[in-house]
Amino acid sequence: MIVAIFTLSALAGASGLLLGFAAVRFKVEGDPVVEKIEAMLPQSQCGQCGYVGCRSYAEAIVAGEADINQCPPGGNNGIIALAELLGRDPKPLNAEYGAEQPKRVAVIDEQSCIGCTLCIQACPVDAILGAAKHMHTVIARECTGCELCLAPCPVDCIQMEPVAATITTWKWTYPVAEIEAA
Amino acid sequence: MSAWFPFHGGVKTVRHKTESSQRPIQPGLLPSRLVVPLHQHVGATAKPMVQPGDRVLKGQMIGQADGYVSAAVHAPTSGRIMAVDQQPVPHPSGLPDWCVTLETDGEDHWIERKPLDYRRLHPSDLRNAIRNAGVVGLGGAVFPSAVKMNLSGHCERLDHLILNGAECEPWMSCDDLIMRERAAEIVAGIHIMVHVLNPHQVLIGIEDDKPEAIAAMNAACAGTGYQVCPVPTRYPSGGAKQLTKLLTNKEAPVNGRSTDIGVQCFNVATAYTLHRAVNHGEPVISRIVTVTGQVAHPQNIDALLGTAFADLIAQCGGYSDGVERLIMGGPMMGFALHRDDVPVTKATNCILAASARELTLEQPVMPCIRCGDCVDVCPADLLPQQLYWYARAKEFDKARDHHLFSCIECGCCSYVCPSHIPLVQYYRYAKNEIWAREKEKQQAELARQRHRARMERLEREKQEREAKLRQKAPPSRAELVVVPGTGISERNG
Ligand code: SF4
Ligand code: SF4
Ligand code: SF4
Questions:
Q1: Which Pfam families match (chain A) (predicted)?
Q2: For a surface tag, which of A46, B73, B103, B104 has the fewest beta carbons within 10 Å of its beta carbon?
């Protein structure tokens, strides 16, 4: 157990360092329009749009291969933002690619996990920690909700759970007061 | 001082102060159970330091300040910890939050109280002591006072230290009463602020409908050089920016801080608790709460933090007929509660049991007729009607460009709007939405970086492996398992 804890913390620390380093060292210069589009995409890296990640989708939009309404996590707000950026007319989300839904995060049932590392290899943002043959766990804060870890799990111990509203994430809603006919 | 400098806009509201201001401050009854929230201040939630079963003494720290912008939380009386879990708290969402539940033992047994000689302490040690005593702004904003007592980086010394005793919200009288009854202790607290902040001038702003408070503060300030400044009764004179303008004619720049213009502003009740904390070693474990509206005997109660609202209502003789809604804070800036079993916190200045008459804002909403009344009353010099259109149409960028974030949510615009549009609700909605999107953006950016780092790592590992393979003889197929599609390979066995 101690070993597991130690490994996990070491991993967390190391990946943090690596990230900071990578961000500086591997800064990719690219097409400014692609950059702008990419900055608007939700970065779930889920592949629902039909591309391997948000950046590929951004490139496909610029190349004219993909339409602007293929990203379910971005939803209607995302489409409107893209339409505005590209000077096109907004259109509804193409249902072929999926439906917009509230954000969820993956949760591993730690009792059933066999420590096979397959989910770690699937996670596009390295949000799963665990050493071989030790139980794995998802860093909820980093999980984008892409669901890519579900399929590879041989014991089906990963579930998607809605992110519960807390006092700190709660928002005032749109006022409901209806305007009476004048 | 008799001259003042009017701020733009504002409204004359109903007052309804005398209902609760006729009786002296009453001590709160000791309930059998106190539920003390760990997040009673702006900033990080205090870290719990107790476990169920622990015995605690009155004034013992039960939640530790977590970082610079935070404040400690203390046991309001002696007893036994029952739970550290999520409990209902007074919040517009109605959602629960982390609380320490204390079963009181009726003995009210204090910890050892150690007064501090603040004149001999290093200012940073004094600020730490203030944070550890849980001192926060008691006007309702609950910002940690220790942070406001640090000028480093903003200005050398203050021009004006302002004490806010304006209390412009209708129905509320807790500041009025504390100034009448505890003026000398408020002044003792001001001495501590003066010691740290070294202001050229100390100004105490009080609305001129509180003659007893003005007289008491004048008497207590005799010989100190502190000036008691009556200001006209006009809502929201108690807004920090509005009071600053009234007393000094200075206005902080948009997006600026008050210290940019050499001003810092504290509530009078905060000065009182600062005095108790420093000169008596008593952390903040109670506050004065106005309980008013449709209750049998409206009054001010010196209530232990964690006391249920329902207990205070009962102490006031219970609800009268016609209560439509329970509001924390005043009718202008307060919010409706979902239930009355929530605890008093450091932010609970007033509990208003409102009848339909007090809820005039909730009349049928009509379309905006562009009358401009809201513009005339906005004390922040905004264009409320314009902000409303943008918020309604969810044009958040435009709302932001029109200084949505300068809106102090005072409610003057809603108050005068002939169409009864709940304007402030739209602004709160728009602000929350902008914050949430900002946060989403930050999270997305983090995910993008993590994704990129991962891709690069995989690429690097692949190259390293290939380099190694080229050096050594290739391993036999049975030894190497290649996980398809990931570029990751593992030694078998
Ligand atoms: S569908 Fe998924 S991968 Fe594609 S752009 Fe949207 S978030 Fe990114
Ligand atoms: S006061 Fe109301 S009706 Fe008049 S301009 Fe403002 S929002 Fe419109
Ligand atoms: S609530 Fe905001 S917009 Fe309305 S009057 Fe007050 S400061 Fe102005």
A1: Fer4_21 (PF14697), FeS (PF04060)
A2: B103
**Count of residues making up chain A:** 182
Q: How far apart are CA B90 and CA B80, in angstroms?
A: 23
Tokens 């609305």 belong to: B207
Q: How many helices (H) and strands (E) does chain B have?
A: 14, 19
DSSP state of B476: P
Sheet of B55-56: strands edge to edge?
A: B33-37, B96-104, B79-88, B55-56
Cα-based torsion angle of the residue sequence A74, A76, A81, A84 in order, rounded to the nearest 10 degrees:
150
Tell me the per-residue pLDDT of B50-103, one tens digit each, with 9 for 90 and over: 999 999 999 999 999 999 999 999 999 999 999 999 999 999 999 999 999 999
Does B1 have pLDDT greater than 50?
Answer: no
Q: Are B371 and B418 in contact (CB under 8 A)?
A: yes
Among B365, B428, B446, beta carbon nearest to A178: B365
Subunit contact A121:B488, Cβ cutoff 8 A: yes
Strand runs labelled E in B90-153:
96-104
Distance CA A109, CA A131 (A): 16
On whether residue B391 sits in a domain, the answer given is: yes
Residues of chain A contacting residue B428, judged by C-beta atoms under 8 Å apart: 172
* Main-chain phi, psi angles of B250, to 5 degrees: -100, 145
Judge: B365–A125 Cβ closer than 8 Å, yes or no: no
Fold of A102-167: Alpha-Beta Plaits (3.30.70)
Considering only the top CATH level, what class is A32-97?
mainly alpha
Q: Is residue B383 part of a domain?
A: yes
Per DSSP, what are the bridge partners of residue B101? B35, B83
Atom of ligand 1 nearest to the CA of A45: 3
Which residues lie with the beta carbon below 6 Å from any ligand 3 atom? B 377-380, 382, 384, 407-413, 423-424, 427
> Across chain A, which distance is largest between two alpha carbons, in Å?
71
In this complex, is the C-beta atom of B365 within 8 Å of any C-beta atom belonging to chain A? yes
Quote the domain boundaries for residue B442: 371-473
Who among A18, A43, A165 is closest to B448 (CB)? A43
Burial of B434 (0-12, 13-18, 19+ CB in 10 A): middle
Nearest CA in chain B to A25: B453
- Give me the count of residues in chain B: 493
How many C-beta atoms lie closer than 10 Å to residue B253's C-beta? Answer: 8
Q: 């996980």: which residue's tokens?
A: B483
Query: For A72, phi and psi rounded to 5 degrees?
Result: -65, -40
User: Which pLDDT tens digit goes with each residue over B346-404?
Assistant: 999 999 999 887 776 567 899 999 999 999 999 999 999 999 999 999 999 999 999 99
Task: Break chain A into its structural domains and give their ranges.
Answer: 32-97, 102-167
Q: State the amino acid at position B326 in one-letter form.
A: L
Nearest by Cα to B37 from B462, B342, B328: B342
Annotated binding residue A157:
no
Structure tokens at B462: 């692949």
CB contact (8 A) between residue B449 and residue A23: yes
Q: Between chains, do A124 and B454 touch, taking CB under 8 Å as contact? A: yes
Within 8 A of B364 by CB-CB distance, chain A residues are 180
Quote the number of domains for chain B: 1
